[in-house]
Amino acid sequence: MQPSQIAVQMYTLREFAKTPEALRTTFQKVADIGYTAVQVSGIGPMNPAQVKEYADESGLKICATHISWDRLENDLDALAREHQRWDCKYVGIGGLPDHYRTSQEGYRTFAKQASDIALRLKEQYGLQFIYHNHAFEFESRDGITGMDILLNESNPKHFGFELDLYWLQAGGADPIEWIRKVEGQMQVVHLKDMAIVNGKQATAELGEGNMNYKGIMDACRETGVEWYVVEQDTCRRDPFESVAISLDYLQRYLLEGNK
To answer: How does residue 259 score in pLDDT terms, banded at 50, 70 and 90?
Structure first.
């Protein structure tokens, strides 16, 4: 991992990115903190050209996105052109649409449909589909989880993963085991820590929780992860301070020589 591979997920800063003017200011704050890349998700409606202009102005690369399943199904050509305009290879979906979640057959249907879309993205546009998990994919039905179905019944040549390691652990799974399971299919990973606050689990800045991030980072490095994306769904302090703390943790990991 190099410093240039660390990004911040704009969903963390969504309350500060609802208008073009706010996004411009937020991009500059992110750059001032020390980030060189962002994942675009959760921002307000605005012209894609303007988003690219403000990212370039702040020296930020757009490394990945989260977009709606509806656009993947019904507006793929325009969506792909936007990503090409942004020089952004990774087209992400932030979670399984509700109507696929109720059965194993729903997961299987999604795995096939998403694989078909991923094939088009790769072959026609040179883009990569990535799937972001939460905890619900680890609910077991008849001894198999939805996440197992997504892994085993999607096309590994085209269907990529963007493991959210907090939600993976919240679902009772082992982050390091899953990082190795999806080796070759995961170029983007979501990083946040898990703390216990008033007896309940909560998202936390990297190094401020209880997850084995030393082992996690080593596994990510060893399996060839390209983008390390800091995300925190809910911050208990100023979100800009939160993403700065997480960046500092990753920089200290680098200074220790990626051991």
So the answer is: very low
Task: Tell me the three-class secondary structure of the chain, residue by residue.
Answer: CCHHHEEEEHHHHHHHCCCHHHHHHHHHHHHHHCCCEEEECCCCCCCHHHHHHHHHHCCCEEEEEEECHHHHHHCHHHHHHHHHHCCCCEEEECCCCHHHCCCHHHHHHHHHHHHHHHHHHHHHHCCEEEEECCCHHHCEECCEEHHHHHHHHCCCCCEEEECEHHHHHHCCCCHHHHHHHCCCCCCEEEECEEEEECCEEEEECCCCCCCCHHHHHHHHHHCCCCEEEECCCCCCCCHHHHHHHHHHHHHHHHHCCCC
The arithmetic mean of pLDDT across residues 81-87, rounded, is 97
Confidence tier at 3 by pLDDT (50, 70, 90): confident
Question: What pTM, to 2 d.p., does this model score?
Answer: 0.95
Q: Strand 90-93 vs strand 227-230: parallel, antiparallel, or unpaired?
A: unpaired
**CA–CA–CA angle 138, 143, 148 (5° rounding):** 45
4-25: pLDDT as tens digits: 999 999 999 999 999 999 999 9
**Mean pLDDT score, 173-192:** 98
Long-range contacts, stretch 120-128, CB < 8 angstroms, 24+ apart: 120/76, 121/76, 121/80, 121/91, 121/158, 122/158, 124/80, 125/80, 125/83, 125/84, 126/84, 126/89, 127/80, 127/83, 127/84, 127/89, 127/90, 127/91, 128/89, 128/90, 128/91, 128/160, 128/187
